[in-house]
């Protein structure tokens, strides 16, 4: 399966995106297709053995729209300026039209030659002449409206097209009658209504596009983080090159105050780096030789040379942008309400408008009232606000999350997090710093302590478990010369095993001794160390226990605050760890966590997550993204911490780009605010249509309240504006700004 994101031109409302999505998902070879109205693109997963990109673009064309190729976040300033100029020009023409057609009713002075009663033919001719530019201005609306109608997927443009052309047709008929001497028809001209409708539709789109661009700004900011040029070391000299000229393996130079151009590893020098854009943490991070650097981060105070490792689309920043764009193209369950409604809404409105036309004619209200009602219903019912309700909120919250070091892979994650009632934490490296130290060594052999450490550190240097870091640090501290290892194996949930000088070396918890049938005579020693809060590591050589290590860890500074905040929100906190029960309980007591599940293997963690879900709970699992991968994948929402540089390989739903656990509180806050905002948007969108369609039909005619097509156009713009402004409120969510003191 292959996944691509294509840009799509011509979408104006939820009916458009829904029609394309429905058509694409019907095609053989397409697994899933998600169309995003705000981003104007579609993310499509398809079988490349069956389909090609060209065939998919052909499907998009068949659905009545146009593919613009692989989606890119482009600068739209030029297009914006052009649209603004035309908007002003036609705004002036609209005012002239309204003055000519309505000025006399308001007592405004009108030149005699343009007086509708004294010079009806001239008046009608001028109105027709001014209408022609508007028909050209709105040609894209008519073209798209007719095309989608013939494709059997009518949308907002279809409603406007039918309304304007009906009004225009009747006005042209009245014009012919006037020129033939029947001057009474001067009262039946609706040219100004046609023009005003077109203008306000364009105004609505102008506002929508401006708002959409604002929602995409956080994503654009990420794209623009990397510099356009950098210095590369060639034959010992610095040479400035463009960013796309840098190749893997090049030695790139970064001076103080400059941004790193690509992802790489420092080979010369040291500095402090500002990685705020990727972690959301403002505290500088110290970088020395062999440390990884990320494109877009800022060198604050030193000269460094680094080897280019990830460039272009492989860079961390590119992966983040792609992930955020893909996330905005997924559907939240709540969004399906709007999709279902918009799929039937337009055809239903067309039927209602047609019936109103027929009924008004049948009851003798005349053609004027019938056609005015027909056009008003079509215009006032345009589902712009319905189409914007969900995607606007999602794009804003996804972009804001990314900017604060929270990467959300699917938008449905936001809805699930807002409903979560259980958060399960791995202990080591998640609730704790993972910076373990060897606190105690019990020697049960004739070996010297340093010799025991050589065996232990030699074996642990190949392990991926956080406990291995304690042995690696000890080896550096004592400058030990380590042995070479043969037949190394990492046994998940047990420990490690290998050969040194033809001796079998086994290291791990008490379980590994049982696994290899090694006699354990030191359980009392284990219990004593455990009571002190140590994790236990046995060392056995040739099936005989020679040493017992007590390894200590420390809680993250913000862990207590984070757990307390979750509990205040009535969210149950569970600690799930492979550590022994006593050690786990010591940490749990410090954190005030009541439910602790210890001594579990990675595979057993998955069973426990599934058991919690079977109880009807929405489960969030937070782990390190490596040993906890199965459990993260099994949870309703998997959150990985401290794995930001390996985004593409990460299997969790959310990636925290820093170790700061308060980001989880930010995620919950953003999710709740986003879901609430979407509900508000949907309410206003539905409320508007439920209120305005009956009024357009004449439900309040007996009170003297009647709306015409022009007022309908204004009302439609205001409804969209209400949703847009409400969605933009998400930008002002106040997140937890506490820094992570553990970042160094």
Question: Overall 3D geometry?
Answer: elongated
Spell out the CATH superfamily of one domain: HAD superfamily/HAD-like
Just give the CATH class of one domain: Alpha Beta
Largest sheet: 7 strands, mixed
Determine the N-to-C terminus distance. Answer: 41 Å
Q: What is the multimeric organization of the chains shown?
A: single chain
Named CATH topology of one domain: Rossmann fold
How large is the radius of gyration? 34 Å
Major beta sheet, strand line-up = 14-26-25-24-15-22-23
The mean pLDDT is 82
Strand count: 26
Estimated helix fraction: 40-55%
- Count of DSSP-assigned helices: 25
CATH architecture of one domain: 3-Layer(aba) Sandwich
- Percentage of residues in DSSP E strands: 15-25%
Structural class: alpha+beta
Write the layout of secondary structure elements.
Layout: E1 2-9, H1 14-26, E2 30-36, E3 41-46, H2 53-62, E4 66-70, H3 77-102, H4 120-137, H5 139-150, H6 156-179, H7 191-215, H8 217-223, E5 229-234, E6 237-242, E7 251-254, E8 263-269, E9 271-274, H9 276-279, E10 285-287, E11 292-293, E12 298-299, E13 304-310, H10 316-328, H11 335-362, H12 366-380, H13 384-403, E14 406-408, H14 412-419, E15 422-425, H15 427-431, E16 437-443, H16 449-460, H17 468-478, E17 486-491, E18 495-500, E19 503-508, H18 510-515, H19 523-531, E20 535-541, E21 544-552, H20 559-568, E22 572-576, H21 581-591, E23 595-597, H22 602-614, E24 619-623, H23 629-634, E25 637-641, E26 654-656, H24 662-697, H25 709-728
Parallel strand pairs: 15-22, 15-24, 22-23, 24-25, 25-26
Antiparallel strand pairs: 1-3, 1-4, 2-3, 5-6, 5-7, 7-13, 8-11, 8-13, 9-10, 9-12, 14-26, 16-21, 17-18, 18-19, 19-20, 20-21
């Amino acid at each position: 399966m292959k996944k691509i994101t294509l840009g799509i031109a011509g979408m104006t409302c939820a009916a458009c995106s829904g029609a394309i999505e429905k058509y694409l998902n019907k095609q053989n070879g397409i697994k899933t297709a998600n169309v995003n109205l705000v981003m104007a693109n579609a993310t499509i997963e398809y079988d490349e053995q069956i389909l090609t990109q060209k065939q998919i673009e052909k499907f998009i064309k068949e659905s009545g729209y146009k593919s613009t190729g692989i989606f890119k976040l482009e600068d739209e300033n030029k297009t914006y300026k052009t649209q603004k100029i035309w908007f002003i020009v036609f705004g002036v023409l609209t005012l002239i039209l309204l003055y000519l057609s309505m000025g006399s009713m308001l007592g405004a002075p009108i030149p005699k030659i343009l007086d509708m009663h004294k010079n009806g033919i001239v008046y009608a001719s001028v109105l027709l002449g001014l209408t022609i530019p508007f028909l050209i201005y709105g040609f894209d609306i008519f073209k798209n409206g007719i095309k989608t109608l013939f494709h059997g997927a009518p949308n907002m443009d279809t409603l406007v097209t039918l309304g304007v052309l009906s009004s225009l047709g009747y006005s042209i008929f009245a014009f012919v009658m006037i020129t033939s001497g029947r001057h009474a028809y001067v009262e039946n001209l609706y040219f100004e209504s046609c023009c005003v409708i077109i203008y306000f539709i364009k105004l609505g789109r102008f506002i929508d596009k401006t708002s959409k661009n604002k929602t995409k700004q956080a994503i654009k900011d990420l794209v623009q983080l990397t510099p356009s040029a950098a210095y590369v070391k060639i034959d010992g000299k610095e040479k400035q090159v463009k960013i796309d000229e840098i190749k893997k393996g090049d030695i790139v130079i970064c001076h103080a105050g400059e941004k790193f151009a690509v992802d790489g590893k420092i080979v010369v020098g040291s500095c402090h780096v500002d990685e705020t854009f990727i972690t959301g943490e403002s505290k500088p991070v110290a970088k020395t030789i062999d440390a990884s650097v990320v494109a877009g981060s800022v060198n604050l105070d030193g000269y460094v040379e680094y080897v280019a490792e990830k460039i272009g689309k492989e860079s961390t920043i590119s992966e983040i942008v792609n992930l955020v764009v893909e996330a905005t193209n997924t559907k939240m369950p709540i969004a399906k309400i709007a999709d279902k409604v918009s799929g039937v809404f337009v055809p239903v409105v067309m039927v209602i408008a047609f019936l109103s036309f027929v009924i008004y004619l049948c009851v003798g209200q005349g053609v004027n009232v019938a056609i005015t009602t027909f056009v008003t219903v079509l215009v006032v019912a345009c589902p712009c606000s319905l189409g914007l309700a969900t995607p606007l909120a999602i794009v804003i919250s996804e972009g804001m999350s990314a900017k604060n070091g929270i990467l959300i892979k699917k938008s449905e994650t936001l809805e699930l997090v807002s409903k979560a009632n259980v958060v399960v934490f791995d202990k080591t490296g998640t609730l704790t710093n993972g910076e373990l130290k060897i606190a105690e060594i019990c020697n049960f052999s004739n070996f010297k302590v340093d010799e025991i450490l050589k065996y232990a550190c030699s074996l642990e240097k190949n392990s991926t478990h956080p406990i291995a870091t304690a042995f690696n640090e000890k080896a550096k501290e004592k400058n030990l010369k380590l042995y070479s290892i043969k037949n190394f194996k990492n046994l998940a949930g047990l420990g490690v095993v290998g050969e040194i000088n033809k001796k079998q070396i086994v290291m791990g918890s008490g379980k590994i001794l049982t696994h290899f049938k090694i006699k354990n005579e030191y359980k009392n020693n284990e219990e004593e160390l455990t009571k002190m809060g140590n994790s236990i590591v046995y060392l056995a050589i040739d099936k005989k226990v020679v040493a017992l290590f007590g390894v200590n860890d420390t809680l993250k500074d913000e862990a207590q605050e984070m757990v307390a905040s979750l509990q205040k929100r009535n969210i149950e906190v569970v600690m799930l760890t492979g550590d022994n029960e006593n050690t786990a309980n010591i940490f749990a007591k410090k954190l005030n966590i009541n439910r602790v599940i210890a001594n579990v293997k990675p595979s057993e963690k998955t069973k426990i997550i599934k058991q919690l879900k079977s109880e009807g709970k929405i489960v969030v699992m937070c782990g390190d993204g490596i040993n906890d991968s199965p459990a993260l994948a099994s949870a309703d929402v998997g959150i990985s911490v401290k794995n930001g540089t390996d985004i593409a390989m990460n299997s969790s739903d959310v990636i925290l780009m820093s170790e700061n656990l308060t980001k989880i509180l930010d995620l919950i806050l953003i999710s709740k605010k986003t879901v609430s905002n979407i509900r508000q948007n949907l309410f206003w969108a539905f409320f508007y249509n439920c209120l305005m369609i009956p009024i357009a039909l004449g439900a309040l005619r007996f009170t003297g309240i009647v709306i015409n097509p022009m007022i309908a156009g204004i009302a439609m713009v205001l409804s969209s504006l209400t949703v847009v402004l409400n969605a933009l409120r998400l930008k002002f969510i106040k997140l937890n700004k506490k820094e992570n003191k553990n970042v160094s």
